[in-house]
Structure formats: C-alpha cells, structure tokens
Amino acid sequence: MSSMFYGETGTEIVVADSVIVHLRAAITEKLRRNERFLLSWHEPDVVGDGTSSVWLDPSIPLRYHVDHGVDATVDPGVVEEMILAASTDEGLVIGSVSRLSRG
User: Are 90 and 82 in contact (CB under 8 A)?
Assistant: First the structure.
C-alpha cells in the first residue's frame, strides 16, 4: 500500500497501489488549477468503519509515498474521471472510480 501525507501534521492516508498514481495525477491537476475540493475515503474496521474526509487546497502541504515496484502507468481516462468526481458536491471518494474497479 502507498500513502499520502496531508497537512502540517502529516496525517497519513493509506491508498491502494493501483490508485495512488492516478490520484496523484488528478490531485496535482486540480491544485495546479487552484481548485479546492473534498477528498474522502472509507476507513477500515480497525479504525472505526466509517468515512473520513479532508479539504484539499493548494496552501495545505501534501506529500505522496509510492511503494517501490508500483506500476506508474497512468490511464488518462481514470484521471479525468477522478477530476470530474472531485468537481461534484460529494468530491472525490477514493475507491469510487469505476474504471479502476474494472481493472
């Protein structure tokens, strides 16, 4: 599993390897455009089996760690689907992009 680290405190958000490179590309594009948005993910049972969210803004530190050996090939269609989802009222929910779930 790869990770994103959010904010001054470096809150870790664990992300599936198959998602991280697409997520990084989509977030980079949104923030480069100076667009803010909500990012949410489903927490595992051990954390409380709920959903967590953060507000992404260009002024808030964000760092990525992609595990060694992760395929860095980016599908532009997946990135575009993420960008469109991030522009909705619900924001981007990690794991909700249908093109990734189809493999």
Answer: no
Fill in the amino acid letter for 82. Answer: M
Residue with tokens 């599993």: 1
**List of residues 6+ apart from 4 with CB closer than 8 A:** 12, 13, 15, 20, 23, 24, 62, 63, 64, 65
The domain in which residue 57 lies consists of 2-101
Residue type, 64: Y
Per-block mean pLDDT, blocks of 10 residues, the chain (103 long): 94 90 96 96 78 94 90 91 95 77 47
How is residue 26 written in tokens? Answer: 């989509």
> Which tokens hold the place of 17?
């390897």
What number of CA atoms fall less than 13 Å from residue 18's CA on the CB side?
Answer: 10
d(CA 69, CA 81): 25
Q: State CA 66 to chain mean position distance.
A: 12
Distance of CA 38 to the CA centre of its chain: 10
